[in-house]
Automatic annotation (TrEMBL):
This is Acetyltransferase. It comes from the Bacteria. Residues 9-171 form the N-acetyltransferase domain. PANTHER family: GNAT-FAMILY ACETYLTRANSFERASE, SPERMIDINE N(1)-ACETYLTRANSFERASE.
Length: 175
């Protein structure tokens, strides 16, 4: 099991008992915009996903970890490496903290720092990228804090509640 420990939080692999947490996250319409979700997920599908969560990142092309604060196992959010491309040594990265009450408490910063370190030092990636809506000020601030640079804007990229929104592409190179 992968566990990455920071000062106040740790990242761990998903477990079968995360079923209700992941089900709640995937079906929370308030975060569908940032998670790029368009339809609800059944418990059955989430259970199948968790049963396959043991797959290696090289096989699944994704690594999703739970963000935790306490040793008693509850998750506060999720952080993902996706579109893992070992040939070109890159992956996308995304993060979501479930409760509004847990945001702006440095949890996301510490989780992102741990995942960046893991991606660059353990997976030997050359670059990470993030797709961020241009009106998502919290995510823009978080990623730029860690040196991600905006390299372009995709105009009218996502349709949210009948309105097209721009999405910025950010990139961090391991130098």
């Amino acid at each position: 099991m992968i566990t990455l420990k920071g000062k106040n939080i740790y990242l761990r692999a998903l477990e079968p008992n995360d079923l209700e947490f992941v089900y709640t996250m995937e079906n929370d319409q308030s975060i569908w915009e940032v998670s790029n979700t368009q339809t609800p997920y059944s418990r059955f599908l989430v259970k199948q996903y968790l049963e396959n969560a043991h797959q290696d990142i090289y096989e699944a092309k994704q690594l999703r970890l739970a963000i935790c604060q306490d040793e008693d196992f509850p998750a506060l959010g999720l952080i993902d490496l996706f579109d893992f491309d070992p040939q070109n040594r890159r992956a996308g990265i995304g993060i979501v903290i479930q409760s509004i009450n847990d945001r702006n408490k440095n949890i996301g910063s510490e989780a992102l720092h741990l995942m960046i370190q893991y991606a660059f030092h353990n997976l030997n990636l050359h670059q990470l990228y993030a797709n961020i809506a241009t009106d998502n000020l919290a995510s823009l601030a978080l990623f730029t804090k860690f040196g991600f640079q905006e390299i372009g804007v995709k105009k009218d990229w996502t349709l949210v509640n009948g309105t097209f929104k721009d999405e910025a592409l950010f990139q961090l190179l391991n130098q």
